[in-house]
């Protein structure tokens, strides 16, 4: 079963440049979470901070009692073995076959026999739908296949926490839809805690149990997907609608003059239109029930009192029998 990741008061700067401050959130065990945010808001830096590759100046990241910021490096290294990472660019070795790429972490970090390695690698290759391509070099396959190979490699060490940095970048809409389903199926199969960084609004709307957004050096919000999807905070609704009008500009944040000029054209109605919450993806037929989704239902029901009205309604609708009821 996946492991809870607790982030408390995290602040990260590079020199004088503060990236984000006082970020606190909990990735619930075995649930899927998505982090949104305009380019440059520090999403990749956040992932790297969670695994202890970057050191925030303040705050803690607690995993099984180990603080990935301040614990001794030996403990951090040990805890890092719980993670599977899928990088923004796939990060495969160009001169190695897919098989060898995917086998790499096993050969590097375990003493397993080649026969055992072969069994594990082929099983992961099967999960991501790359059977038959294992002998190919990364340069001989499509970008979408490289993404899935990156995901297979993230899975070989039986991770309990999976971090994916823009798994969809460079994929067409159909392949992105397949990838969304793959992420949900994967979660059903291994019950790992997952955090996905993405700009893709379809993934954001259909995959996660929880969503957060980084903007202007702060975590705007983090919580059940329905909270963000129904939010009328301007930065959230602008991002989810992919509009130019609103607080987000080309250099992340618009200056006061630009914002004031926009407001003269009265964009307010644009920012507050009703928004529907599309149903979350279910595991494919034949897959196990998502244990994370079951736990999430309990969890969300117990926090209803603290949620905004629109989010409460959306949650109750999604759990109503008429909505398919397959979630239970
Ligand atoms: N090692 C580093 N040293 C100095 N600055 C860095 C370092 N890594 C990242 N930054 C800065 O931190 C900021 C956030 O970068 P990050 O890559 O996390 O953004 P992002 O949200 O992942 O963007 P994108 O959506 O484009 O991938 C950027 O201004 C970047 O220049
Ligand atoms: Mg990034």
Automatic annotation (TrEMBL):
GO MF assignments: ATP binding
Domain ABC transporter: start-end pairs: 5-241
Entry keyword Membrane: no
Keywords: ATP-binding, Nucleotide-binding, Transport
UniProt keyword Transport, yes or no: yes
PROSITE patterns, A to Z: ABC_TRANSPORTER_1, ABC_TRANSPORTER_2
Domain of life: Bacteria
InterPro entries registered for this protein in UniProt: AAA+_ATPase, ABC_transporter-like_ATP-bd, ABC_transporter-like_CS, P-loop_NTPase
Record-linked PANTHER family: INTERMEMBRANE PHOSPHOLIPID TRANSPORT SYSTEM ATP-BINDING PROTEIN MLAF (PTHR43023:SF6), PROTEIN TRIGALACTOSYLDIACYLGLYCEROL 3, CHLOROPLASTIC (PTHR43023)
Protein name per UniProt: ATP-binding cassette domain-containing protein
Source species taxonomy: Bacteria, Bacillati, Actinomycetota, Actinomycetes, Kitasatosporales
């Amino acid at each position: 079963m996946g492991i809870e990741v607790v982030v408390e008061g995290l602040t990260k700067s590079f020199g004088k440049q503060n990236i984000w401050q006082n970020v606190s959130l909990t990735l619930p065990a075995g649930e899927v979470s998505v982090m949104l945010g305009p380019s440059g808001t520090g999403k990749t830096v956040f992932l790297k901070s969670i695994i202890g590759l970057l050191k925030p100046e303040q705050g803690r990241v607690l995993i099984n009692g180990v603080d990935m910021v301040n614990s001794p490096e030996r403990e951090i290294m040990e805890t890092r073995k719980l993670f599977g990472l899928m990088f923004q660019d796939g990060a495969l070795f160009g001169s190695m076959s897919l098989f060898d790429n995917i086998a790499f972490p096993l050969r590097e970090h375990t003493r397993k026999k080649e026969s055992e390695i072969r069994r594990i690698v082929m099983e992961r290759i099967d999960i991501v739908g790359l059977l038959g391509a294992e002998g190919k070099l990364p340069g001989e396959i499509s970008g979408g296949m490289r993404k899935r190979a990156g995901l297979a490699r993230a899975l070989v060490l039986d991770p309990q926490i999976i971090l994916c940095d823009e798994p969809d970048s460079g994929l067409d809409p159909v392949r992105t839809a397949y990838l969304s389903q793959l992420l949900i199926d994967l979660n059903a199969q291994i019950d790992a805690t997952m955090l996905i960084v993405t700009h893709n609004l379809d993934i954001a709307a259909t995959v996660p149990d929880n969503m957060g957004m980084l903007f202007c050096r702060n975590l705007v919000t983090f919580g059940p997907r329905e909270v963000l999807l129904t939010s009328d905070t301007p930065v959230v609704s602008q991002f989810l609608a992919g509009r130019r009008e609103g607080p987000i500009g080309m250099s992340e944040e618009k200056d006061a003059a630009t914002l004031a000029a926009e407001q003269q054209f009265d964009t307010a109605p644009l920012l507050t239109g009703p928004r529907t919450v599309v149903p979350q993806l279910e595991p494919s037929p034949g897959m196990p029930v998502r244990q994370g989704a079951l736990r999430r239902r309990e969890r969300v029901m117990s926090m209803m009192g603290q949620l905004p009205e629109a989010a409460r309604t959306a949650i109750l609708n999604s759990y109503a029998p008429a909505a398919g009821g397959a979630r239970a």
